[in-house]
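Researcher: I'd like a structural prediction for the single chain below. Treat it as a standalone chain; there are no partners to consider.
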Amino acid sequence: MPRFFRTVASALILLGLSTPAFAQLGSVPYTFTPGTTIVSAEVNAMFSAIYSGALNRTGGTMTGTLTSQQITPASSATYDLGASGTVFRSIYLGTSAVFSSGGVITFNSGDVTVTHSTNTLAFAGAASGYTFDAPVAVSTDTYPPIRATRTGFGSSTTIGALDVRVTHTSSMGDGFGPIITFTVRDTDATDNPIGALGFVRTGADNIGDFLVQPINAGASTTRLRLTNAGNMALGATARFYLDGTAATGNTYLVESSSDTLDIVAGGTTSFSTTATVTTFATGVVGTGATGGGKGAGTANFTAVYDDNVLLSDWVFEQANGIQKPVRGGEGEQPEQPTRVKGPNMEKRLYALSEVDAITGTENRLPWMPSADTFEAERHTGGMITRLWVGQEQQQLYISSLNKQIEALTAEVAALKARLQ
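Model: Treating it as a single chain, here is the predicted structure.
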């Protein structure tokens, strides 16, 4: 082999050994065949092609496309791809990107970071939050699939941990608000909504009501509404069960018809009330009363108060000059001779002459109301007291007359004795 050819071949071998394996040399411009003449221009062109496509070991620029090659650093976790101030614009990856334990993805010099630790991926930064332009689906057999945790606050106040919001492109009105839907799915792979919870605007942009919307055959209807004032509204003809049984109990409250509230106990309506009438289908028994119920339409109490006044008699006490304390009154204050419950009802005794005068001119007993007064008052307690008073007054009259009869009888007996 001519000496010059050997020299050129040796140089080419040395260049090949000094060029990294990942250098992009491109196509070879010339080939040399043993026994032929090597032209210097071709040799120069060969050197130019090698140098233009090779990287030296202290740095350089590589162009072109890396095909079916692997870039492997000399030491693990030691070298960088790019540098601060000199970064790659885009990285195009294939099926996977593998990060070692403890790896960190940093955006904008740490404005947002994604950090890996054992079984955990932590997001940090992003003071304005994270946004997604499509639904986020979480599928796992581990409980809970989603958890929102907020720390660093007091232990005696409610803490906002989750914010669910909806937005509108125009001014919102009543009924607008976020709803959380509950859905089930089985082997037929069909999503079946079964209920929803949410809040809706009510009256102003910062006032809302809470809704519970069970779904029946695909139709969602508000069955319970908790208003911002604390009132709870059930759906029309809805039942409020009190025995803890979900749809089969026989004890409940129900609006049986418009503006009518019923209490159903044991399947029987025991109480029904409207704006004007209250009906008891069973007897009423007050606490402490003995003997229990006395049947439908009856009342059994230990005492009856009328506008905080215990119905009581007083005629005998007044006739006998006794100041008797009010029964059950606070401080046991003695009764005063003041008018009670209606006109013409004073706490005093009436002489028979007064009774005769009033009955003769007003057609009523002095302790009883006139027909017009009774119609206006409809005062049951007052009527019971008046009847009680009348009974005792009449008893006093009878006792007085009996004493007169006894006195006259004694006088007659004395006169008879003298005549004998």
